Amino acid sequence: MRIDIDGAVFKVSxxxxxxxxxxxxxxRPRDKNLDDALIRITLDLLSQTGLEGVTMAKVGRLSGIPAxxxxxxxxxxxxxxxxxxxxxxxxxxxxxxxxxxxxADLFAFLKxxxxxxxxxxxxxLAGLLLPMHHDPELAALLSKKLEAIRNEGWRGVIxxxxxxxxxxxxxxxxxxxxxVAQTMxxxxxxxxxxPADEVFLNRLLDTVLMPALxxxxxxEPETNVDA
Length: 227
Prior knowledge:
227 residues; mainly alpha; two-stranded antiparallel ribbon; 59% helix
């Protein structure tokens, strides 16, 4: 570019930042390690301090990542928080194999649920319970994943038991039992601050879930076998 000031001509060079995501030119590929660090720090803050404790300044200070690099990826704390939650929930394993019996299938489901609601993630979710009532986008994100756990986990287990003839079709309507399982595991993680280990899950299974479901069975109650 040439600029004429009082008869003097100056040549000015403009250099575009190749890492600027707003640039129309092709920039450097995004650094996945940097993205992963931002997600990890954000999830840690959500677990420790709740939604209000996550700020761009705090994420930058804890991660050591320059503010310019953070803002190129996320325009504000809300977008970073949503991306972190979505990334974390996307890692949950929902598919359950057929283990051959209602009890074995339920135990596998409870183990999946205990992993999904491990103490760190459960504390993070606990901090989002109130904010989600005022944030439709956050509520939709959380509800979608938690409903997927119910639909692909619990209902899949019950449906297989119905197909085997171990339960009557009415068992598909006993969704409050799923709520009981989620609530007890959540309470164990958040209030007691303890993982839902196999001893806890077996007790939940044999004193709550199996007795309730066996009332809807068509045949003999299943024996208590090791999961």
